[in-house]
Amino acid sequence: MTTSLVDRTDHIENSPALRERRPLRRVLHVINGEHYAGAERVQDLLAAVLPEFGYQPIFAAVKPDQFPLRRRNADAPLFEARMRHKFDLRPARAVAHLARREGCELIHTHTVRSAMIGRIAARMSGLPMIHHLHSPTAGDTTHKLRNAVNAFIERRSIAGIAAAIAVSKSLACYGERHGIPADRIHVVHNGVPVLPSLAIRETPVGTWTLGCTALFRPRKGLEVLLEALAELRRDGIDARLRAVGRFETADYEHTIHDLSAKLGVQSAVEWRGFRTDVAAELAKMDLFVLPSLFGEGLPMVVLEAMAHGVPVVGTRVEGVPEAIRENVDGLIAEPGDAGSLAEQIRRVIASEVDWDSLRETAHRRQVNFFSDRSMAAATAAVYRRVLDGTVVESPAAADAAVAPATS
Fold first, then answer.
1. Which pLDDT band, with edges at 50, 70 and 90, does 162 fall under?
2. What whole-number distance in Å separates Cα of residue 6 and Cα of residue 9?
């Protein structure tokens, strides 16, 4: 039995705009499509910007759900090759057929599932494959057995691939430990759009609104943030939490709401749910707090907060300290430590660290090193290396070429 491809482009491929782009070299991105979170935001932004650098992404979603609904850059054709269960390999044939039919020169995978399908499709189509490391698979969830199984599948699926893209230096080290040759791993930091200018804001006085945007699941450390909020309020600090995002499961949502009631902070938390207007949400936050416990690559929400000049309090996890220079662009707490998190938040509220300076330096750093164009430029450089054997520029060189440093 074969899996048929479902075309979700609404016939975009016949539009004049796409016909004009035919000379672009085509890359098939095999994705899950289940969520619209950090990795999916990367995929969406690459779809928008890669054409500037000579490449046209095409999407094949093996577990389509939120991504087809939420994606903002619909110029990239999207097809569904749905896996009926985690070990359903039948879509690989359809993906290989799609790659050949659309004239793709490269297959680019982003998850364990997509790597498994993409690897078979790459062999069937004779195309090289690149795998994107967005987070450490061996430590991605609280389920050790699931992590171990996923890591094993990933290692088998990416053995011998042409190249790997790691979103942080820590993930590059992870990839090397899991069998990818060091000379095939390229660090390409995530990036988000650059704003024309930094909005003028007054330093908060009185009530401080802490913000957190995420797909809420256990590794995000929401329990630690609620405990830190309770500690701050016990100390007489008028802090509130604006939580933006949906919960991964209904059970976890009930657990979190029960905890907020137990801690006595339920009236100080506003649950916003999923929101498409991230800018409007960030504008209402005085501090952005990401209390992750583990499993982060280079969080897009941190970069978005930096872009909008919202000072970040993060944790010492994976790529977070690569984006935030401690006490310069933001503050770093120890993961899983509510006291440490509360203390870093308190330092900003008490003006021990200047709020205005944090937002200005964070914004400047995002412009210089973490833009969507620098991400796309560096990704395109990896493509050229694989397809043409050209030398890949360092991420810093790509950043400098796209967005010259400002003083």
1. very high
2. 9
With 80 as the cut, is the pLDDT of residue 57 above it? yes
Name the pTM for this structure.
0.85
Please, which residues have CB within 8 angstroms of residue 279's CB and are 6 or more apart in sequence?
Answer: 308
Q: Domains in the chain and their CATH numbers? A: 6-191+371-402 (3.40.50.2000), 208-368 (3.40.50.2000)
Residues 6+ apart with CB under 8 A from 227: 263, 338
Dihedral over alpha carbons 150, 154, 157, 158 (to 10 degrees): 180
Residue with tokens 């969830």: 141
The residue among 273, 292, 369 whose CA lies nearest residue 334 is: 292
Residue 77: name the closest of 29, 129, 118, 34 by CA. Answer: 29
- Report pLDDT digits (tens) over 334-370: 999 999 999 999 999 999 999 999 999 999 999 999 9
Identify any residues that bridge with 208 across adjacent strands, giving them in sequence order: 239
